[in-house]
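your task:
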Amino acid sequence: MAESLVVTAPATSANLGPGFDVLAAALDFTNAVIITRRPGPLDIRVTGEGAGEVPEDETNLICRALAEGLDSLDGLEIECRNRIPLGRGLGSSAAAVCAGLIAANALGSLRWTPADILARAIRLEGHADNSAACLNGGIVAVGAGHQTIRLEVPRSLAFLAAIPLEKVSTSHARAALPGGIPIRDAALTLANGICLVLALTQGNLDDLPAVLEDWLHEPYRGAAVPALDAIRGLVGTHGCLGVTISGSGPTTLLWCRDSDLAALEVAATEVLVRANAATHLVPMRIAQTGVRARWTALGDAPRLERSIG
């Protein structure tokens, strides 16, 4: 029986309000990639999100990542089971690239280090924050030289993702940003970013409403987020601790405690209905682990661990 490599990669939310291009969270909402060796040319199939839209050939992001470490993709059968929506600010590209790189590392017994994998992910995908969170899990801060620090945050932290049906391209969202910003806006955002990290690592979730506001990117991207003002009106009610635009949008994250998720989802549903917004809600929590891979054949698990190592 042919062995298969199963790789799972989490969605990610970058920026987290005042942490523009620095902070990101891995979310417990994953894509799966199943790779099987068999004779014949490359065969790739996409199901779920992006089916009929994502290329099913060597130009697929997963295949481009695999090609970083494998001389040929012939002999591979790849099935992409996608849950992460495309173009919604939830790191679908980072998930594809990181899954492909981890798979290449395993299939080719390459022994890339975590730093090697992150550098390749950034080169292919372009976003250090999303890639670092996808690979490491949890909430991460990415500094100069792509040094990654994982923050220890309360397990009770949760999110309600409000995901619009319409897409926003990252390039379009980047183009909406100004060429420069006032020093005061930068200083206020920096202060909130520092206070956000302190609130999270010290477990002071009640401090979040005061420190999630941003002046670097959200004021310029908000117009592309359906019902943003209505959603922000929930802050301070039903357990909502704050609202941030996920990545370049248009998805928003409503921050809350796990115990408040159900009540907040009911309230947010009512708000979206009144706003006539074509948006669906998905409860999410922090993914404690990043990209993971395993062989379906139990006897090969040790070889995989050494390969990813």
User: Anything to note?
Assistant: Confidence is low (pLDDT under 50) at residues 298-309.
